[in-house]
């Protein structure tokens, strides 16, 4: 009886600590938005107990490998959440540090399609107008593309379509899929931090609901915007609009 009770109690202590860290991570996200020093402090505060947790789990591994493996997965999930959350919080301070140049967007889009969807088993179609330029930061614009392309891969069923074109003085990028789409009443809120729709919670798709908030933040620095509509394939189309820039290199 005693033995049965001691082992679970050790696990339940770890589990309580795990839940505590997770709660702390979520609560601090909004606090961190305007205070750079806090980001670094919290990053340290969250990582230290996680490292301790990992160590404790490694010690327990021989006793109950199955349960320890499940808990290790939770810890890894938490590390990912902390990374994603910190990367979102850091974005708040990066604008001042962000350098902008003339970016060949057509090339950037093609490169990111290759990188994010090169190994996809979905049918990927794209129509990329050439020689389209924007004034911006290639690292952050690549992040926008990655988040949208990875979502299409994650939530789409069989097909993904990407289009890049010029309309008046604007560049329009659209990423469409044939997945469940976004219900009309969620088309604004889906861009808020930590928003995940029920369909994706029940699905085995990793994520914390920060990807689209990051997209919105980066695009606002570029005087751009992102909105969602229904795709021709009845899934989602994520549309991006950015001011076009003339190519000063030619
Ligand atoms: P994450 O994918 O990490 O959960 P995002 O901020 O990228 O976070 O997306 C927020 C939510 O919007 C997702 O959890 C999902 O419910 C929904 N979503 C995003 N992209 C798509 C898509 N292409 N099709 C359907 N739902 C999507």
User: Tell me about the biggest sheet?
Assistant: 5 strands, mixed
Q: Roughly what fraction of the amino acids lie in strands?
A: 15-25%
Output the radius of gyration.
Answer: 21 Å
**What is the percent of helical residues?**
40-55%
From the helix content, strand content and strand pairing, which structural class follows? alpha+beta
Structure description:
The structure is a single chain. The chain is of the alpha+beta class. It is 53% helix and 18% strand. The protein has seven helices and seven strands, in the order αααβαββαββααββ. The chain has helices spanning 2-31, 36-60, 65-94, 105-117, 138-155, 198-202, 211-221; strands at residues 101-104, 123-128, 133-136, 159-167, 170-177, 225-230, 236-243. The strands form two sheets. The protein has a five-stranded mixed sheet with strand order 2-4-5-7-6, covered by helices on one side. Strands 1-3 form a two-stranded antiparallel ribbon. Strand 6 (225-230) and strand 7 (236-243) form a beta hairpin. The termini are far apart. The structure holds adenosine-5'-diphosphate (ADP). Adenosine-5'-diphosphate binds next to helix 5 and helix 7.
Features:
7 strands; 5-stranded mixed β-sheet; 18% strand; globular; alpha+beta; disordered N terminus; binds adenosine-5'-diphosphate; 250 residues; 7 helices; two-stranded antiparallel sheet
